[in-house]
DNA sequence: GAGGCGTGGCG
DNA sequence: TCGCCAAGCCT
């Protein structure tokens, strides 16, 4: 099958089977002249970096409701953006999202640039996202390569070179395959195919519009592709978190993490450093101030990108007014916790402390 | 260019 | 329980 024929086959499939997504203009409406909002395409693409559609949907709704345009987002305090992003992960994306909105508002008069080259200059927009915005929002011819495209094309062309070494070849193949007409729909079609049919495990080849032309299907190699370089083993780090609870109000003591690095700029429960050599017997010595800290029964387990974490949780019930001031820390009332910029690992730590209670009275 | 950087769902 | 994986970017 030639490139033009393969592309047309997939576009016909897409016309019938495109997923309906909150940020997407359906192929039908697109043909009727509806154009995508570059702001919504950009926002969705950043949220979708290494993140599933299911996880993104509610956050996308929340963001577009709070900030309907890029200039609204540019006008928002960064702290509000971090609070809204809390739980979605990869928090540098939220910091760069805000920086990017500021730049578009200030340097591009609130209009997203429409070329890959200009888009690449913006914070948080790399090769994939620049190509995706250029083609989906502006109908530019661009080779969009994400994890789906890598998998689909590795199989279609039976590319046996392991990733990431195969990336340049895949990019060239995608550029050849992408049609001049409807390049944006084609990119979304390949990604939809990868998400719904040509899945990592147990692909549904019988339903695939490209089955007969697929080289890996012909040779029975579909499930062995793409090949990938072996991954490094994750170490386990240990630490302690200290949940101070105000006896009067139930407020808990929180503080801000440093602006960059792991969970940069997010809110946390005061705690120790996390290390493989952490001495659990001496954990309480890492408390932020002296108090009647009691070790909670349950530890918190959490996995980050490159290590596992086990946290011992300590709780102390005390009078906030009599607590030594902790630099930059604040007391947050129970009703306010939902709105804090707390990453998931910190919500787990709070839950472990608050569910069990003080261990003294029946709280 | 290799490593840092979250989270939730799945088998 | 655990490893794998999901629309990558930055340094």
Automatic annotation (TrEMBL):
Cofactor(s) listed: [4Fe-4S] cluster
GO biological process: base-excision repair; mismatch repair
Gene3D superfamilies xref list: Helix-hairpin-Helix base-excision DNA repair enzymes (C-terminal), Hypothetical protein, domain 2, Nucleoside Triphosphate Pyrophosphohydrolase
Domain of life: Bacteria
Enzyme class: hydrolase
Record function comment: Adenine glycosylase active on G-A mispairs. MutY also corrects error-prone DNA synthesis past GO lesions which are due to the oxidatively damaged form of guanine: 7,8-dihydro-8-oxoguanine (8-oxo-dGTP).
NCBIfam families assigned: mutY
The name this protein goes by in its record: Adenine DNA glycosylase
Organism whose genome encodes this protein: Roseibium marinum
